[in-house]
Amino acid sequence: QPIEGDDRPAILAPKGARMRMPDAQSEISKALENLGLLPPNMKPEMAPLTGGVSSDIWRVSLPDRTVCIKRALAKLKVEADWQVPVERNAYEVAWFKAARAIVPNAVPDILAHDPSTGFFAMEYFDPNEFELWKSALLAGRIEADVARSVGAALAAIHSGTANDPKIEAAFQTDETFHAIRLEPYLEATAGIRPELSEALFDLSRRTATTKRTLVHGDVSPKNILVGPDGPVFLDAECAWYGDPAFDAAFCLNHLLLKAAWRPCDVAKYLDCYEAFAEEYLNTANWEPKDILESRISTLLPGLFLARVDGKSPVEYLTDENDKNKVRRTARHLLLNPVTRLDEVAAAWKEELTK
Hints:
- The protein is an alpha+beta fold.
- It has helices at residues 15-19, 22-34, 88-100, 133-138, 144-161, 165-170, 174-192, 197-209, 244-261, 266-283, 289-309, 320-335, 341-352, and strands spanning 11-12, 45-50, 55-61, 66-72, 110-114, 119-123, 131-132, 213-215, 224-227, 230-233, 240-242.
- The strands form three sheets. Strands 1-2-3-4-6-5 form a six-stranded antiparallel β-sheet, with helices on both faces.
- Helix 10 (266-283) runs antiparallel to helix 13.
């Protein structure tokens, strides 16, 4: 059940869509043969997963197991013209392998990878045992302990890769990270909100030049499964050696945004926000905590605004009043930066209770 791309969970494509895939099925079968996972001339049962925007991904039933096979796209499936390097596929595989060495239960096992075609296969997670964190959050199953476990696992990955010259050399993906994250989120938003352009471009430049740890780049609830042994991180296409504050802010951002979507659960979402932040900062050991928290706190409003005015707006905030609440809070915090995460949460809570 890997998920990738935007904020919509991957689901099986409609039956009609599957009927129009003979060419894709043949290509996938050939890729599986090349990866050594399928005997020649065998046609396995497979179904496309939809919802993501940055890759094609299928669930495939092999003779001995079910797997997921994935291939990166050059043009993302969004309204905006969003072109990204397909080489990110190899770095995604590398991120999974590096993270698995630190937190083996928190990432999928990579079964095979063919860099020449951009295909890789990974383990499949049974939805009867693993639930998408986003689905739980939107359904009202909002548990601080889950957020705390995500913060702990993420901090462990950052800690285990911090200030590592070998990891840094292996993830020289500045161009891709800019194309997938900094430009569509911060810089594109600056074009929409010129009065905040200077602050947003400053955040983009600071993030781009801060090199501390291995970064996932898309730590969103739609990319995290909750299973019997804790969280499992998916979709590492944005893998980069850089600023861990981006990962933390990216995740905390979603917890804030969902509070606008379900106002009846504001307190629970903010409890999750606090639990994640506390556990993450307590586990972080690669730099002074106040400096790290300051970068997260100042970046967060930029990402907050980006999810309503950037190239990848969250799909669940459709009411213009809710979007304006985000805009007002983000604008205030971008023009009047704070250095603590509880101050960010307090500003958002104040806006929501007006």
